Amino acid sequence: MVKHLLILFIFFAGLPAAFSQQVKLLTVNELHERLEQGRDTTYVVNFWATWCAPCIKELPYFEKLQEEKRKEKFKVLLVSVDFKSQLEKRVIPFVGKHGLKNEVFLLDEKDQQEYIDRIHKDWSGAIPATLFVKGKNQKFIEKEFTYSQLLSEYNKFIK
Q1: Where is the Thioredoxin domain (predicted)?
Q2: Does residue 122 belong to any structural domain of this protein?
Q3: Number of domains the chain contains
Q4: Rounded to whole angstroms, how far apart are CA atoms 102 and 99?
Q5: How many helices and strands (H and E) does the chain possess?
Q6: Structural domain of residue 140, as residue ranges?
Q7: Residue 7 counted as domain residue
Q8: What is the pTM of this model?
Q9: What is the tens place of the pLDDT at every residue in 44-87?
Q10: Pairing of strands 74-80, 103-107
């Protein structure tokens, strides 16, 4: 009995560490560097938060898009705009609960208005918001997507 309890304790104690590997802190400069390094890759960067119901509703669509495009030079990046103080309490458990497989980041910036402007000039700060990037080409959209809308916007962007 004690042996089984010890095994369970070790298993559950390791879960937060496993999920924390899935959520990395990311500055706007690091995001820009990442996008510039992969010039031959199409990126779909979704800005979301754990408290945003429309964001949560559309997250599975980004997971599905990544899965369908896995053989292409394509990458979905999920960037949470939750407060940094919420990383351990909300973001990491959220990622685990929802089984997110795409790369998940927490935006590590202090001045919200300043980072909004640096991400894209057309962003008001509303979420959900999605940035499509391929090389120097960008398209920014502030809205909640259905899967068919997301796929349609992606297909229009890559043409």
Answers
A1: 4-146
A2: yes
A3: 1
A4: 9
A5: 6, 6
A6: 21-158
A7: no
A8: 0.85
A9: 999 999 999 999 999 999 999 999 999 999 999 999 999 999 99
A10: parallel
